[in-house]
Write a structure and sequence with these properties.
single chain, alpha/beta, VC0802-like, Rossmann fold, 15 strands, binds S-adenosylmethionine
């Protein structure tokens, strides 16, 4: 069986979920490497390559996928980078560049203490690709920064250099096509997917986001589950209108119930013990600028969330105020099933998973 090595990127803190989804969606045969807190996972997956590229498009946790063709250890100095980039010369990368094609290198540097920049990585990797094609294939590929036919991805993640061909296109996969309404504090859809998984949402569940903004969680749920009832609620009618627009763009409008309502009275609005899964992204203190207003909201919301959950039901909440939230959940009699830190934009936030025991 042909096997391909892939570098998958996604939200830092979600690497285990990316690896799990790769095993399921790609039939990946091996998780080769997990770079914890860096959002990088390397897997081996079966071909053929065209089928693999198709399967990648159904993954919901990743931002990009790179067909990994060159790898090397790398130190922090410029000479270390020059040495590591030589791995391109010996690799199969030039074989994937057809004669007459144009290419560009997109580079990233993740980690501290490197004496080189991502621009140095791009320049050195680009030179190596041109030289390798000249020496081994007998042609010189043309560099084109806009709309190249092939995008080479080169990165240094801490102490390792990776290079390969970007399979998922320039646009990060978290930019879903349905986002016609952009909520000012929108959640990354890839994180919404991870939260649904951590809450163990399954088809047929009633899934509720009581502070849904532009509807990211509801839309991811609608994509994943055909037979679930999905409720999307926000106190702000403007956001509910936006969520409806997004749902219409995703062609799932008819599968989601939209409510203008107050999360502090969730159990009254949707009914007691009516939600199997609640996944939500409430306002954070840092964004709102008033930590006490956020704490007031959480104090009223958590007891209502407990009443709205069915016994055995689970809730996943993302917040920077995790200690306070966990304390409130404990007081309300909810079990803390899981907690982890994830990177959301420029912040580290926590995903807290709570369970209603009885
Ligand atoms: C961080 S945003 C959610 C963004 C959403 N996850 C998205 O991707 O678009 C928080 C939302 O909570 C809503 N909200 C704040 N207090 C609320 C309350 N008491 N009841 C319902 N919604 C509330 C705000 O209107 C805002 O849209």
């Amino acid at each position: 069986m042909e096997k391909y090595r892939l570098l998958l990127t996604g939200n830092p803190g979600t690497e285990d979920v990316i690896a799990e989804e790769a095993m399921e969606e790609l039939g990946a045969v091996k998780v080769v490497e997990i770079r914890r807190a860096r959002g990088r996972v390397v897997v081996d997956a079966p071909g053929p390559l065209t089928l693999l590229t198709d399967r990648l498009l159904s993954m919901r946790s990743i931002h990009s996928a790179i067909l990994l063709l060159a790898e090397a250890s790398v130190g922090p100095r410029m000479n270390d980078l020059k040495e590591a980039v030589k791995s391109i010369m010996k690799s199969a990368l030039p074989d994937f560049i057809p004669a007459g094609s144009t290419f560009a290198v997109r580079a990233e540097r993740v980690g501290e203490g490197h004496e080189y920049t991502s621009m140095d990585i791009a320049r050195l990797a680009g030179d190596a690709v041109v030289r390798a094609c000249e020496e081994r294939r007998g042609f010189r590929p043309e560099v084109r920064l806009n709309s190249p036919s092939i995008i080479i991805h080169a990165s240094v993640v801490e102490d390792r250099f990776y290079a390969g061909i970007l399979l998922t296109g320039e646009r990060s996969r978290h930019r879903r096509r349905y986002r016609v309404y952009d909520h000012p504090a929108a959640l990354k859809p890839t994180l919404a997917y991870v939260m649904l998984r951590l809450a163990r949402a399954k088809d047929g569940d009633h899934i509720v986001d009581p502070m849904c903004g532009g509807g990211t969680v509801a839309l991811e749920a609608a994509y994943l589950f055909e037979d679930s009832a999905i409720t999307c609620m926000d106190k702000n009618p403007r956001h509910i209108l936006g969520a409806r627009m997004n749902a219409a763009a995703a062609r799932v409008e008819g599968r989601i119930r939209f409510i203008v309502g107050d999360a502090r009275r969730l159990h009254e609005v949707i009914g007691e013990a009516s939600a199997d899964v609640i996944v939500t992204n409430p306002p954070y203190g840092i964004r709102l600028g008033d930590p006490e207003a956020v704490r007031r909201l959480y104090r009223a919301f958590i007891p209502s969330l407990r009443l709205a959950l069915s016994p055995g039901g689970r809730a996943a909440i993302i917040t920077t105020e995790s200690d306070y939230m966990i304390e409130l959940a404990r007081k309300a009699g909810l079990k803390l099933a899981h907690v982890r830190k994830v990177r959301h934009g420029d912040l580290w936030a926590s995903i807290i998973v709570l369970e209603r025991i009885e």
